[in-house]
Specification:
178 residues, alpha/beta, 2 domains, 5 helices, 7 strands, disordered N terminus
């Protein structure tokens, strides 16, 4: 079974608490996790089963670092070109953050309107039905956003794996596995 773990530590300071985003397909793909640390924040795409050992390596490293557990071996990379390419790959999901926040604001506003309508003893069934339609529309938009984000996340995983394998083949990796 192929195991892939890719992690980036791009901050000179020790890492803060990881912000996790577990990939729904981690078991079927056999991928463990991908992490990016920038300014003390760790972003993770995928499962986090083996997160601990690589984060320990990052805490003692003073420059940008990419760590990979792939095919049973752990490698580290500090080549600037590899790190820059990995950073570019990680930026691909940034548009989803603002879209998700906007959708959450709309959902919160709808909830407030629903609560107000529930408190209104004179509200009619048509008003309730209208808000229920709005809720279904927001739910559909959330599902579409989730599906698009999953597609981008899956592509990020494939691209980071390809980058790691290319860097290993080019001799830009140091094996830390004995």
């Amino acid at each position: 079974m192929k195991t892939l773990v890719i992690a980036l530590a791009l901050a000179a300071a020790p890492l803060g608490t990881p912000a996790l985003a577990c990939d729904a397909h981690c078991d079927e793909h056999g991928m463990t996790f991908i992490a990016l640390a920038e300014g003390g924040t760790t972003r993770i795409v995928g499962c986090v089963d083996d997160l601990g050992p690589l984060l320990k390596r990052f805490k003692v490293h003073a420059s940008p670092l990419m760590g990979v557990n792939i095919d049973g071996k752990v490698y580290t990379f500090d080549d600037p070109d590899v790190i820059d390419r990995a950073r570019e790959i990680f930026t691909r999901d940034e548009p989803f953050t603002s879209k998700q926040k906007a959708l959450e604001r709309e959902m919160e506003a709808l909830q407030r309107r629903q609560d107000a309508l529930d408190d209104d003893e004179e509200a009619d069934a048509a008003a309730h039905a209208k808000l229920e339609d709005e809720e279904r529309a927001l739910d559909r938009r959330q599902e579409e956003l989730d599906e698009a984000q999953d597609r981008v996340s899956d592509q990020m995983m494939r691209d980071l794996e390809a980058l790691a394998r290319e860097a290993i083949a080019a001799g830009k990796a140091r094996s830390t596995t004995r």
